Amino acid sequence: MSERTLVLVKPDGVERGLVGEVISRIERKGLKLVALDLRTVDRQVAEEHYAEHAEKPFFGSLVEFITTGKVVAAIVEGPRAISAFRQLAGGTDPVEKAAPGSLRGDYGLEVQYNLVHGSDSPESAEREIKLWFPEG
Ligand code: RTP
Ligand code: MG
């Protein structure tokens, strides 16, 4: 059973030249890229993407950050792709939670600048794929 997940390389990852590293790890794991796009995000998409965090104190700066630079948006497919990519990414806090060997564990230092996003459930994946790739 194959599933799809939405992956983002956030502006810090793009700025630091880590797009290739992220894609390389996705491919080495055996997951497949079915869409890939470098773009800037408008505020409305960013706010919708992170709607679940709208009441959190970091929401404003998170949306600000995501909209300040280019991001890479990708649809990634494979068996248990959602969980597989979350493992590749590592925990949200790159120092306290992400294990060494994960993307965040290897390259991140601050919670906000944690390089990548991956959908956290089938429902999120479906919602986020529609939001980022409305053309289908
Ligand atoms: P993401 O949604 O970006 O894949 O990350 P995640 O599931 O691991 O973490 P989540 O709890 O959904 O948080 C979304 C993003 O918000 C930023 N954040 N900042 N300053 C803070 O305390 C804080 N907490 C979260 C991070 O960029 C996180 O990835
Ligand atoms: Mg999340």
Structure description:
The chain is built from seven helices and four strands, in the order E-H-H-E-H-H-E-H-H-E-H. It is globular. It has one domain: Alpha-Beta Plaits, CATH 3.30.70. Strands 2-3-1-4 form a four-stranded antiparallel beta sheet, with helices on both faces. The protein has about 140 residues and is an alpha+beta fold. The longest helix has 11 residues. The chain binds ribavirin triphosphate and magnesium ion. Ribavirin triphosphate binds next to strand 4.
Quick overview of this protein structure:
With 136 residues, the protein is an alpha+beta fold.
Summarize this structure as a short list of keywords or feature phrases.
NDK-like_dom_sf, four-stranded antiparallel β-sheet, binds ribavirin triphosphate, cytoplasm, 136 residues, binds magnesium ion, metal-binding, globular, 42% helix, 22% strand, 7 helices, Alpha-Beta Plaits, alpha+beta
Helical run tally = 7
Secondary-structure element pattern, one letter each: EHHEHHEHHEH
CATH class type: Alpha Beta
CATH arch. level architecture: 2-Layer Sandwich
Mean pLDDT, rounded to whole units? 98
Cα shape: globular
The largest β sheet comes out as: 4 strands, antiparallel
* Bound chemical compounds: ribavirin triphosphate, magnesium ion
Major sheet strand order:
2-3-1-4
Q: What fold name goes in the CATH topology slot?
A: Alpha-Beta Plaits
Query: How much of the sequence is in beta strands?
Result: 15-25%
CATH superfamily: Nucleoside diphosphate kinase-like domain
Total domain units: 1
Number of strands: 4
Keywords: ATP-binding, Cytoplasm, Kinase, Magnesium, Metal-binding, Nucleotide metabolism, Nucleotide-binding, Phosphoprotein, Transferase
GO molecular function: nucleoside diphosphate kinase activity
Protein name: Nucleoside diphosphate kinase
Organism: Saccharopolyspora cebuensis
